Amino acid sequence: MKGYAGRILHIDLATGKTHVEPLNEEYAKKYIGGIGLGIRLLLDHSKLGIEPFSPENPLILTTGPISGTMWPTGGNGHAFVSKSPQSFGVGESKSHGSFGTELKRAGYDAVIFEGKAEKLVYVWIDDDSIQILDASHLMGKSPAEAEDIIREELGDYYIRVAAIGLAGEKLVRLACIINDKTRAAGRTGMGAVMGSKNLKAIAVRGTRDITVAKPDEFMEFIKEFHERMKGPATQKYRTLGTAANVLVHNAIPCMPTRNYNNASFEGAEKVSGETLNERFVAKIIGCSSCAMRCEHVCVVPEGPYKGTMTRMEYEPLWAMGPYCGVDRLDAIIKGMDLSNYYGIDSIGAGVIVGFVMDCYENGILTEKDLDGIDARFGNQEALIQLVEKIGKREGIGDILAEGVKIAGEKIGKGAEKLAQHIKGVEVTGYDLRCLKTAALGFAVSFRGADHNRHGAYGFDVKGKVNRLIVEKGRGKMVKDLEDQYTLIDSLIVCKFSRGTYYKGLEDMAKLYSLVTGLEVTAEEMRLAGERINNVARLFNIREGLGRKDDTLPYKVMHLPVPDEGSSKGAYVSQEELDFLLDDYYEARGWNKEGVPTIEKLRELEMDDLIHIAKRKAEKAEER
Amino acid sequence: MVKIHERKFVAADPEKCVGCQVCEYICSWTKEGAFNPLKSRIRVVRINQLINLAVTCRLCEDPPCVAACPRDALTQSEETGLIMVDEDKCNGCGWCIEACDYGAIMLHPERKVVYVCDLCQEQGEPQCVKWCPEEALELVTSDVLAQKARITAVKKLFQEALKVTPITS
To answer: Fewer CB within 10 A of the end CB, N or C, for chain A?
Structure first.
């Protein structure tokens, strides 16, 4: 089997012991790699009900079969999977850059970190040599600083590093893992799990050759994709970037503003992708092997944050901008930079700050509670101060570092209703009240609130459906996209390139076949994508999540859009949500409780996991 | 009569290079049949997100690598300017690596002899230039490089005037 390294590395951080096991070929075929393989390994290597921060919770790092090749956007991917300290279900986050390609050349499809190191360490994977090294000198360093120090001390400037910042060390639940300085496995708190293992960083050097099963055809296919990537499918990413969404969403309107108090922002022009590019974008760079290039590197040219340099995308821009009522791009860039410095999910951080501002304006939190911070909506200084506090778990930041859900519960006094999350994971930049296909996608996402598990907002935003109503068929639409998205994250290719797969699954099947030599059809690829969604669902079911958790944030269901225009009055009622869920579960072949049926699992050749669904059914009967 | 310089080498435009390493992949693929940057004759340097540049052999007029070789394993082709490695003579001592100001000559991780860009003689044209998605790589002579630098400098100097009378090139 080409493409795969054929090896899984186990590292027990408690004992320092490591061993390599061969990759189970059946798993490779059924779960592909990336998050798919990772979630299956998580299911196998974790006991029911473990605490996310317990040493028993494995942190799984995977590459995909495409990683390490020259495939544009696909050669460089890696993913982290673990039980999430935010959702207590599947945690997974993917990243690009140069780290994944290096890990593949070191010869691993997956690395499973088990146990907990006695003190802060970093792991040095140098092909077959694995060392666990002291990291006490890296304590409190940012991921970027840690990367520089590690390269210096190991004496090779091409070593790739994925690291956590102070936030990960302090178990900030929304901590991320950053590689190549600006690329983050951002969501679901994978950095906090890494911190709970006292694992500061993973340094990798790989020297193996990567080859593919059908080289000539593969190179031809690459050539074709290089051309496609110059075309319209990627134009947005290569030019304005995702920040173009600001004005698009604002015009509809469907841009959550001031913690969901509005769906449009009067300061949108000031924080638009157009303004960002004109005034702040210094260069657009690319990941290893990519023929697109999307990474908009911003530099603040003047003012209090002068010299700040960071990557910027729509989501963090939205979270720290409109969602907090902040219309200053320089401050938003600073907030993003601080998120990267401390190693926190910048989306989650912005949503938490928006929540604090809402609490403040409603008198639930006072200046005294906030160590003197005047947390009015729109106060960019408060944004910066609060991100700092979350990153350091300082003052009010100690509560906020628990994520918006737990923070809301701890603060009480109605703050729970202001905490906008799904399954404990903070919302992202799509107003779900008036994007009802997206609302379903968000509600059922196995990793909590997220646009990247389905992309169902596309139907709503592009006007392919009536976004303000619910109707039969939305379930199938979400399902089909989800199945494609899990595949994208398992192969691993970049979601920004999804439009270049003109033939969709057929192109993906061809790619997989050319690399691995396993002849697969588009239908088999689709089944793999569906299987991965089911294995993720089964993990969540095993951990006690179910229909009750497939829900929407309080405001989405109780506060109609107040803004004038086409979205006015929109919200999602419980009846509508139930209708959508029933439709979706039916499309998925799941029962009313959202549990995969035995027939469905048999169809997906997941007989070995039927016991999870059965156990759930028995428990339901007992009640 | 002075002679126009004819030696061409691969140069990366710092304005265009985005550090994507496509050149490294295609180089190792072309020359070694594998994707492996460690076997690429062109290497990308990313100092920070803003500073990216691919670097390879400049075919120096008076190549220090050739001068540094104590075993006469390196010679420069008079015709093309390419650095040629006699693999039987090379023992991988690395004097040439130290002598090269650009890190363009490297020790092969398997063969343990040095290797350097040969402008893809077999393929007829440098594959990195052909594949670079940004068209940041070019096969140029030092004269053309100088011309381009001059033109860029003058354009910058007359930025305001050019806004009024735009030119196409």
So the answer is: C
Kindly give the pairing relationship between strand A121-126 and strand A199-205. Answer: parallel
How far lies A510's CA from each of A506, A516, A521, B34, in Å? 6, 10, 8, 20
Q: Which of A238, A283, A312 to mutate to test the interface with B (most CBs of B within 10 A)?
A: A283
Name the residue of chain B whose CA is nearest to A218's CA: B29
Domain ranges (residues) in chain A: 7-205, 230-426, 436-594
CATH number of A436-594: 1.10.599.10
Q: For A7-205, which CATH class?
A: alpha beta
> Which residue is closest to A210 within chain B, CA to CA?
B35
Chain segment A566-593, per-residue pLDDT in tens: 999 999 999 999 999 999 999 999 999 9
The predicted model gives A441-459 an average pLDDT of 97
Residues A560 and A569 sit within 8 Å (Cβ to Cβ) = yes
Q: Residue A474 pLDDT > 90, yes or no?
A: yes
pTM for the full predicted model = 0.97
ipTM: 0.95
At the second CATH level, the architecture of A230-426 is Orthogonal Bundle (1.10)
Chain A residues in contact with B133 by the CB 8 A cut-off are 72, 226, 229-230, 286, 290-293
Q: Measure the CA–CA gap between A172 and A531, rounded to whole angstroms.
A: 32
Q: Which two tokens stand for residue A130?
A: 């694995």
Segment A306-324 mean pLDDT: 97
CA distance B9 to chain A (A): 23
Instruction: Determine, for residues A283 and B36 on separate chains, whether the beta-carbon distance falls below 8 Å.
Output: no
| Contact flag A290-B22 (C-beta cutoff 8 Å) | yes
